Amino acid sequence: MAKNQLYYGDNLDVLRRYVPDETVDLVYLDPPFNSAQNYNVIFQERSGTASAAQIRAFEDTWGWDTEAALAYLEMVEEGPDTVSVAMQGLRMILGDSDMMAYLAMMAPRLVELRRVLRPTGSVFLHCDPTASHYLKVVMDAVFGVHNFRNEIIWHYKFRMMMLERFFNRKHDVILFYSKSEDMRINMSAVVEPWTREEIIKTRKQAIYEDDEGREWIWMPGGRGHSKNKPKYLDEIIKEGKARDDVWDIPIISSSAKERMGYPTQKPEPLLEIIVKAASNEGELVLDPFCGCGTTVAVAQKLGRRWIGIDITHLAINLIRHRLRNTYGEEIEDSYDVFGEPTTLEDARVLAEQDRHQFEWWALGLVGARPAEGKKGADQGIDGRLFFHDEGPKGTTKKVILSVKSGSTGAAHVRDLVGVLDREKAEIGVLITLQDPTKPMRKEAASAGFYFSPWTDRNHPRLQILTVKELLDGARIDMPETKGMNVTYKKAPRQLKKVAEQLNLDGES
């Protein structure tokens, strides 16, 4: 089976260059649009040479500019006739607005998504009510009015407020279209459970019992059959209730295990319905705005092949972290990552273009998650790793990471030592693009060691790793208990109980 694929880059470019015609079975996309929100602040301050694509990915804002105008002209002059007419009509209504810029950027991407879909495939476009009616016009133009299937409402309940000018807004819209009349959908895979009481309340009819006491009701005979027929209640319950187009699914709570800290993250149960209904095991699922990778994670769990595309290294890093946390390091052999730096020169170019993208990419080299928090509130912490070397009930221990893309000196090492002391972290790592100086190495050596009861040895408390060393395979010197990188047979006698608690089998 071909490897799964994770792309860093503009999804329009990736689609045109790398995804062949009619190879994808299901597309799910959640393109950002809500100019009232600014998601960027929870990660890093927008500054320096951040690219326009990255800014849009986090600010979630689109503006009419040269890029949007060119995208609009491309669709009007070279796009399908229906799309050209639709875009001209929308511009007459919306003018050169943010919404029109958003639609101009979305139209060519939707055209490409239709191209890569198989005739039996489907697309689910996730949006909020501020843009759904405009997107529906564009989807009608791209996929055909006759291929519209559903406007699905994702309804979620949480704290309600007393509002003066409008009702509480508690739903998103998912536009479901097929590529053609040859579409395949499996509604029986996503039925809802229901109870005897719900059946009785819904049917509002007499319940009968057979000679053995089994309850049954009269049910319609189905299409082409005018006569009713008896149906047992336990069979109805077992079959489940056909799903409608309003889905009551909670948003991700702050304490949920799947929560990644990504602002637009969607709950896995939502994606499970779509993936189960619109694809089969072994088929290909594509998400061109994959964010923190919920579609990827669900596709992996349900045995589908997948392609994920995102414009930021932050998203790529989070997806890799998410997969590694769920399936272990061996999962990395099942997919390829395209568009990331593979040489020191590539890394230098990325650092010059976008300091924050470089930072997120560098953290991904060691499997670390970016630190959350507004810029200025990170207090010298760019990323974190955690480990346990006292058994599953032991204290969670921390590795603090700092990434430097510019010039570095001994002061940076001393600062990181101060962060370690403040955070009570066991190990600190300084990742640098440049080679460390002698004073830097001396300062790091003076930080001392962390002794691990699991490995029965010392680990340098402050470590300096260059990007070149990481690209050559170097890794952080830390206790690796989760993946059993320490041989059980060589572990000290007093740690046998710890090994048994971790369910380790004695092999490295």
Summary tags:
Rossmann fold; Trna Endonuclease, Chain: A, domain 1; 3 domains
The CATH H-level homologous superfamily of the largest domain? Vaccinia Virus protein VP39
The biggest beta sheet, please?
Answer: 9 strands, mixed
Name the helicity range: 25-40%
Unreliable parts: 34-60, 483-508
Q: How many domain regions?
A: 3
Strand order of the largest sheet: 9-4-5-3-2-10-11-1-12
Q: Can you tell me the CATH architecture of the largest domain?
A: 3-Layer(aba) Sandwich
Which band does the percent of strand residues land in? 15-25%
> Remind me, CATH topology of the largest domain?
Rossmann fold
Total of DSSP H or I helical runs spanning 4+ residues: 17
Mean of all residue-level pLDDT scores: 84
- What structural category do the secondary elements indicate? alpha/beta
The CATH C-level class name of the largest domain: Alpha Beta
Could you give the distance between the termini? Answer: 28 Å
Number of strands: 19
Large-scale geometry: globular
Q: Compute the gyration radius: what is it?
A: 27 Å
Short description:
This protein has 508 residues and is α/β, with parallel strands linked by helices. The chain has helices at 11-18, 52-59, 66-78, 81-94, 98-116, 132-143, 196-203, 233-239, 268-278, 294-301, 313-327, 344-353, 355-365, 410-423, 438-445, 467-471, 496-501, and strands spanning 4-8, 24-29, 117-127, 148-155, 171-178, 208-209, 215-219, 229-232, 246-248, 284-287, 305-310, 335-338, 369-370, 383-387, 397-404, 427-432, 449-452, 457-460, 462-466. Strand 6 and strand 7 form a beta hairpin.
